[in-house]
From TrEMBL:
PANTHER family, alphabetized: DNA POLYMERASE III SUBUNIT DELTA, REPLICATION FACTOR C / DNA POLYMERASE III GAMMA-TAU SUBUNIT
Cellular component GO terms held in the UniProt record: DNA polymerase III complex
This protein's name: DNA polymerase III subunit delta
Lineage, broadest ranks: Bacteria, Pseudomonadati, Pseudomonadota, Alphaproteobacteria, Sphingomonadales
Biological process per Gene Ontology, one example term: DNA-templated DNA replication
Organism in which the protein naturally occurs: Allopontixanthobacter sediminis
SUPFAM superfamilies xrefs: P-loop containing nucleoside triphosphate hydrolases
One Pfam family it belongs to: DNA_pol3_delta2
């Protein structure tokens, strides 16, 4: 996918590289799906490259990426076999400790190395505290790029030691052009729904289409408008999401539900605004908890449906 909306981050990054002293820690912030990780890898490759030193096209020995590992040995085997696998919920302290051991050696090819943590806001508390020590006293030639979708979850002391690169959301015309280019087979209605649901995130828009989230969107909108007095629509919603949805699909459903309520808020009675705001706030809370809490998927889907039903214009029909 051709990444869009990165002009300003690249400008800031390259101006810093051209300066006398490059800051040692960077915080890449913005919504999920804006391509922050892809930027981090490309920026890291620019950072470690040196004239007349061959740079490998694949994995780079001086770029170390810390992210979610497979959940257990069984999932590790699935990964090795090229099959879909489940991830651990957090980046553990053991991963930070292992990275810190590497920092006791010199970079392999040149004078610089880059450490990418994605997403840094999913580090365990102990991992965050361990990382802080490296940020306070970084080894010479070591640079950190922390990708964060929810930077407020990071320790304030970590945030204060980083220079922030903010990634803006993408405007609708650019999103439409991107979707037309990447998924030309998508219909006009699907593209419109994807743009509305993604709220400026190209990754979310593409996931909407490739993940066949159109049926979810239709059911959610019906619940929000009609209510669900007999729980039939909530049952359809659970069926559309699937019996064992992975975290990515649950995340997409939460994002979509927030977008549905956001669309309702644009054309509602003034007296409906407090209810819509409350439901949206609760969905935001669930979205923040979903990556780390061990929710029962079925109950979470019903909660999403109930929050949507609570916003229906006729409260007695919503049965929320």
């Amino acid at each position: 996918m051709n990444l869009i909306g990165h002009e300003q981050p690249w400008r800031e990054w390259r101006e810093a590289m051209a300066g006398e002293r490059m800051h040692h820690a960077w915080l890449l912030t913005g919504k999920r799906g804006l391509g922050k990780m892809q930027f981090a890898i490309a920026a890291a490759r620019e950072l470690v490259a040196e004239p007349d030193v061959h740079q490998p096209a694949g994995d780079h020995p001086d770029i170390h990426i810390l992210t979610h590992l497979p959940k257990d040995d069984k999932e590790e085997k699935k990964k090795a076999d090229g099959k879909p696998f489940e991830l651990k919920r957090n980046i553990a302290i053991a991963q930070i400790r292992s990275m810190q051991q590497r920092l006791n050696t010199r970079p392999t090819l040149g004078e610089r190395r880059a450490i990418i943590i994605d997403p840094a806001d999913d580090m365990e508390k102990s991992a965050s505290n361990a990382l802080l020590k490296s940020l306070e006293e970084p080894p010479r030639g070591t640079f950190f790029l922390l990708v964060a979708h929810r930077p407020a979850r990071l320790l304030p002391t970590i945030r204060s030691r980083c220079r922030t690169l903010r990634f803006p959301i993408v405007e609708d015309p650019e999103m439409r052009a991107l979707l037309s280019r990447e998924v030309p087979e998508a219909g006009h209605d699907a593209v419109d729904a994807a743009i509305a649901a993604a709220n400026g995130s190209p990754g979310a828009a593409l996931n909407f289409i490739t993940g066949n989230l159109g049926p979810l969107n239709t059911i959610m909108r019906r619940i929000a408008v009609e209510g669900d007095p007999d729980f039939m629509l909530r049952g359809q919603l659970a069926e559309a999401i699937g019996g064992r949805p992975d975290r990515a699909r649950i995340q997409a459903a939460l994002d979509l539900a927030r977008a549905v309520i956001g669309a309702r808020a644009q054309d509602c009675r003034p007296e409906d605004i407090p209810v819509l705001a409350d439901a949206h706030s609760q969905l935001v809370t669930l979205t923040g908890q979903a990556p780390t809490y061990n929710f029962d998927a079925g109950l979470l889907v019903m909660e999403i449906g109930t929050l949507l039903a609570s916003t229906a214009p006729s409260r007695d029909r919503a049965n929320a």
